[in-house]
Design goal:
Helices cover 30% and strands 26% of the residues. The protein is built from 13 helices and 24 strands. A 5-stranded mixed sheet has the order 16-17-15-2-24. Helix 10 packs parallel to helix 12. Bound molecules: shikimate-3-phosphate. The site of shikimate-3-phosphate has 11 residues, from helix 3 and helix 5.
């Protein structure tokens, strides 16, 4: 993909459904006692991986008038083939939790990137609950020997991970008694909200623990998935960075554990507002309005993103690093070593590509220091097939001097297949 600088972002958009919510809602619908209808399901390849795995497990899913329809009271069958999770960590980790509570054996495989990511973080708690999991060096392929009756556990998460928390909570549906997950830092809470929204009470306590009492089963029902705020983030950033921009995005998920990106940019002086906020099955969503220009972004204050802020910004950190290169005083990211374990080593890929565009970046084991403001120039971007890196640097390309070429840009389809056409529709030269 070749990209040229833009003058302005202008337009009104609605986006496909949130990826994290879509994975969870598909799993909930597959497990529910009655039928479910999902509208605005994510178009991400990652979510298609979840659907294909469920179909291999014997779950029938129909497409009807742009909706996904799941019959209720479905029974999982032992799959004849390996379940292919593709590039999707959420599919592999959360589905492992579901399968831990089923009396069958299934093998989960992934692409090269997913097969290099750490899985001990789910193997340990799921084995404590009574599943048996074979892995090679703590990595996929994983062979899961589930059990329909698991032991409830109280488990303190060693890393802040919504995927691990969710795997344990899904397994807890088939445990006899109270399953509790204790977090040290709050991670995205879609699982908790959607469990409550579909009839399985989950309590969230002030000590950052979440509990559910098993065995428990979801009611089915209808849901419209809110637009993906992590996809919206790229357009919001582009609008903020290009003066004279005016962008409205309707129907976007505004869950506070996901929308921290918007509040961080607002606190730095960006002109971003939200309105028309409603909720759907406990998930807030609404309209985001952005006016361009970073003149009001005050200079030389300490802009450090660290500690408890990191989990709710985790997928937006490469993009925040790009924005940081344009802000007086730049930004500092710390306590984010988890970024090295994503689809690519996102600290390394962000530093590499920002430097290729002329930015000054210092890399730490757990973060980055990006100086700003620095004019960027067009460059050859190595996405390492990481969708969030390709999209963050497409935004950088709009504010750079000269042409930028993004290698492996088709990887954006992992989370946002419509990214480049939508960007072209709102970016004015
Ligand atoms: C996700 C959680 C995060 C995030 C990923 C999606 C989820 O991963 O980076 O894109 O849907 O729960 P971790 O749980 O590994 O932090």
């Amino acid at each position: 993909m070749r990209l040229n600088p833009a003058r302005q972002i202008y337009g009104l958009l609605r986006l496909p459904g949130d990826k994290s919510i879509s994975h969870r809602v598909a799993l909930i619908a597959a497990l529910a006692s009655a039928s479910s209808e999902i509208s605005n399901f994510s178009t991400a390849q990652d979510c298609a991986s979840t659907l294909v795995c469920l179909q291999e497990l014997g779950v029938s899913i129909e497409r009807r008038d742009q909706k996904l329809v799941f019959a209720g009271n479905q029974k999982f069958v032992a799959p004849e083939r390996s379940l292919d999770c593709g590039n999707s960590g959420s599919t592999l980790r959360i589905l492992s939790g579901v399968l831990a509570g089923h009396d069958l054996t299934a093998e989960l495989v992934g692409d090269e990137s997913l097969s290099s990511r750490p899985m001990r973080r789910i193997i340990e708690p799921l084995e404590l609950m009574g599943a048996k999991i074979e892995a090679t060096d703590g990595k996929a392929p994983l062979k899961i020997h589930g059990s329909a009756k698991l032991n409830p556990i109280t488990y303190k998460l060693p890393v802040a991970s919504a995927q691990v928390k969710s795997a344990i909570l899904f397994a807890g549906l088939n445990a006899e008694g109270r399953t509790t997950v204790i977090e040290t830092t709050t991670s995205r809470d879609h699982t908790e909200r959607l469990f409550n929204g579909f009839g399985v009470p989950v309590t969230t306590n002030s000590d950052l623990s979440v509990s559910l009492d098993g065995p428990a089963r979801f009611n089915g029902g209808a849901i419209t998935v809110p637009g993906d705020v992590s996809s919206a983030a790229y357009f919001v950033a582009a609008a903020m960075l290009l003066p004279e921009s005016q962008l409205t995005i309707e129907g976007v998920g505004l869950n506070p554990t996901r929308a921290a990106f918007l509040s961080v940019l607002s606190s730095w002086g960006a002109d971003i507002s939200t309105d028309d906020v409603k909720t759907e099955r406990n998930e807030p969503f609404g309209t985001i309005n952005v006016r361009g220009g970073i003149d009001r972004v005050a200079g030389e204050t300490d802009r450090t993103l660290s500690r408890a802020m990191i989990p709710s910004l985790i997928d937006e950190l490469p993009l925040l690093a790009v924005i940081g290169s344009q802000i007086p005083g730049g930004i500092r990211i710390r306590d984010a070593s988890e970024l090295r374990l994503k689809e690519s080593d996102r600290l390394a890929t962000t530093a590499l590509n920002l430097r290729a565009m002329g930015a000054e970046v210092e890399e730490f084991e757990d973060g980055l220091l990006v100086s700003g403001p620095t004019p960027l120039h067009g460059a050859l971007i190595d996405s390492r097939n990481d969708h969030r890196i390709a999209m963050a640097f497409a935004v950088a390309a709009l504010i750079a001097k000269g042409e930028t070429q993004i290698e492996g840009s088709e990887c954006v389809a992992i989370s946002f297949p419509e990214f480049f056409p939508l960007l072209a529709s709102i970016a004015k030269q």
